[in-house]
Specification:
heterodimer; A: alpha+beta; Rossmann fold; OB fold (Dihydrolipoamide Acetyltransferase, E2P); 2 domains; 9-stranded antiparallel beta sheet; 24% helix; B: mainly alpha; globular; binds adenosine-5'-triphosphate; binds magnesium ion
């Protein structure tokens, strides 16, 4: 169990690709951290630098107060679970799990004890003598986790461990992983590009974009107060509505496609004539004429989901598409006009050029 | 394309059987010829069925030397051939797997340079570089030694290349998992790479053993001492035994005996080979 401190970490691959730059984060003991972001944003690179599989170009990495920049992977007290499992194909499940312990020189009886316990935890007891090729994908993934658990490391690293599995199994293993984290109390660092996985697992999420950290925070921080338009777009499903426009002269409206339909209850923190993006989550809109932002929606079509209803339409007088999620069963015909509004803390305003949050 | 028409089945079988007969006929002839007396083979028609001299011929071959082959006992020649084939096979496998390991998994200066040097020698078969190699062997005083017979044939670009290609197909994650599991270079080689290469090693063993066993030109150049003759050379010497008529019944018997070890290696290693294939992952 240990803290992990990352100070201005950077990675430039030979050939000049800057994969990661200036990452700073302090991870508490026992925290479940999820690194999330689109493909190629540098998540795996960070994880591999922590593991010691990739050299660190700049910055410092400390595990439990000890600087580990120059230590071999085997000396860092970490364990890693790979996306494609990376089990040794010629060794049995038991062989796979005990290999690292044997190399450490642990006495035989302790090895056996640890393997028995890990096998019990992961329900692998009956498969201990099988070869990886004789297991299903989910079982292989559990063996890979078992191989990590038996080493009793300070930090567990996971690189998209569930992405090769089907949706149902993924949900099941996600729950097991969460339970495992609670029981072990170790620090987990988990890479995924699936925001649902990130939201459901993380204590804190690090969201990355093009090698930089966009925001670090709890899932609710990211959901309720995204620091940038990128985060707003990435987190939440269905995705947040984003409307681009120009701030009107009185700073209480948004000019979109020549329409002045969008009105704000208060002056917004942007200069008149500035180009901004307004973001509101579909579930935060309601038929409410007194909200912080108000506008009209021309209904195109309605999706009935049972528990709630998603209305798709366009902001009145524009071609900007927008979705609203209303609870319960609601009937709205095509062409109908709805009056909508949202609360002040559910209105997100971003600078269009920098993408940074304004309010 | 799996067709299921009786005519086609008949045709394919007929073609296969003709092929097998063609391939087996010379072997059959050698077997038959080795059971006849000296006279039977120099008159026509040549017998197509076994004679009654099998016991006499083979006991003569195995027990004593043949004057026609310079008096060297067959057993001795077989032994020399076995030594040569085994040393070449093991030597080639050990050296090539180690060099492939170095080239694939270690970053050292001029790594690719070394790889291309090895690769280029692929294009030069033994026969092309035989004179300079012979010269080196002479200067090192290795004529008429087992070392001279085997060492120059051990370096193998083909096997190195084969192992390199195989190592490149091993996923990087496996190597990384081993690093996290504290396996140093030697442990990684011994515990992971070697077991994974088993099928490749078995296949190479078959090919290289036969290659070593069938060497002809090189032993002919290197050995003048009869105690180092190999069986392939022996056969050749019997055929060209000067003025006298070739003793075909003995020659064929020797050929049959010389065939046994390679056949055994193929049969035995094939089991391992197939087992390896079945056990390795999908
Ligand atoms: N060995 C390498 N040499 C050069 N560039 C690399 C190397 N590995 C990764 N990169 C580059 O670094 C960047 C980040 O890669 P990384 O693998 O960390 O992305 P990722 O966030 O894990 O993406 P994914 O979700 O697709 O796995 C990419 O632009 C990639 O092309
Ligand atoms: Mg990745």
């Amino acid at each position: 169990m240990a803290t992990l401190n990352i100070k201005s970490l950077g990675k430039i691959y030979p050939g000049g690709v800057t994969a990661v730059s200036d990452v700073n984060v302090d991870i508490a003991d026992g925290e479940f951290i999820v690194l999330v972001g689109p493909s190629g944003c540098g998540k795996s690179t960070i994880l591999r630098m922590i593991a010691g599989l990739e050299s660190i170009t700049s910055g410092d990495l400390q595990i439990g107060e000890r600087r580990v920049n120059d230590l071999e992977p085997g000396e860092r007290d970490i364990a890693m679970v790979f996306q494609n499992y990376a089990l040794y194909p010629h060794m049995s499940v038991r062989g796979n799990m005990e290999y690292g312990l044997k190399n450490e020189g642990l006495p035989k009886d302790q090895i056996a004890e640890r393997i028995a316990e890990a096998a019990r935890t992961l329900r692998l007891e009956e498969y201990l003598d099988r070869k990886p090729a004789q297991l299903s994908g989910g079982q292989r993934q559990r063996v890979a986790m078992g191989r990590a658990i038996v080493r009793d490391p300070k930090v567990f690293l996971f690189d998209e461990p569930l992405s090769n599995l089907d949706a149902k199994l993924r949900t099941q293993l996600r729950a097991e992983l969460k339970a495992l984290h609670q029981r072990l109390g170790a620090t987990f660092i988990y890479v995924t590009h699936d925001q649902v996985e990130a939201m459901s697992l993380a204590d804190r999420i690090i969201i990355m974009n093009a090698g930089r950290v966009e925001q670090i925070g709890t899932p609710m921080d990211l959901y309720l107060r995204p620091a940038s338009r990128f985060v707003a777009d990435f987190i939440g499903s269905p995705a947040m509505n984003v409307v681009e426009g120009t701030v009107t002269e009185d700073r209480r409206g948004l000019l979109v496609d020549g329409s002045r339909d969008i009105r704000f209850a208060d002056e917004i923190p942007a200069t008149a004539g500035a180009r901004i993006a307004m973001g509101i989550r579909p579930e935060h809109l309601s038929p409410d004429a007194s909200g912080a932002a108000q506008f009209h929606l021309v209904v195109d079509f309605v999706e009935q989901l049972g528990a709630d209803t998603v209305v798709h339409g366009k902001v009145s007088g524009t071609t900007v598409p927008l979705a609203v999620r209303l609870s319960g069963v609601q009937q709205h015909g095509s062409g109908e006009i709805l009056e909508l509004g949202c609360a002040a803390d559910q209105l997100h305003l971003f600078d269009l050029s920098t993408g940074q949050r304004l309010n | 394309m799996v067709e299921n028409r009786p005519i086609l089945t008949f045709l394919t079988h007929a073609i296969l059987i003709v092929g097998v007969v063609f391939l087996c006929f010379p072997v059959w002839m050698a077997l038959v010829a080795s059971t006849h007396g000296p006279g039977a083979l120099s008159q026509s028609p040549i017998p197509l069925w076994f004679g009654d001299q099998a016991w006499e011929n083979y006991s003569q071959l195995l027990a004593g030397g043949l004057p026609e082959a310079g008096g060297v006992p067959i057993g001795m020649m077989m032994f020399n051939s076995a030594i040569m084939a085994l040393v070449i096979t093991f030597g080639k496998i050990v050296i090539s797997i180690l060099s492939a390991y170095a080239i694939v998994y270690f970053r050292f200066p001029f790594r690719m340079g070394f790889f291309w040097m090895i690769f280029v020698t692929l294009m030069l078969p033994v026969e092309v570089r035989i004179l300079p190699t012979f010269d080196v062997v002479v200067k090192m005083g290795l004529l008429n030694t087992y070392a001279g017979l085997t060492v120059p044939l051990i370096a193998s670009a083909t096997a190195t290349f084969l192992f390199r290609q195989f190592f490149l197909t091993i996923p990087d994650e496996l190597v990384e998992a081993a690093r996290i599991d504290r396996a140093g270079p030697i442990r990684f080689f011994k515990d992971i790479l070697l077991p994974l290469s088993r099928t490749n090693i078995a296949a190479l063993f078959i090919i290289l053993f036969i290659y070593g066993w069938n060497q002809y030109l090189w032993p002919l150049l290197i050995t003048t001492d009869e105690s180092l003759y190999t069986v392939v050379m022996g056969i050749q010497r019997m055929v060209n035994s000067g003025e006298a008529l070739p003793v075909w019944h003995y020659i064929m018997g020797t050929a049959v005996l010389a065939m046994i070890p390679p056949v055994l290696v193929v049969v035995l290693m094939q089991k391992l080979f197939v087992k390896g294939l079945v056990e390795s992952e999908k």
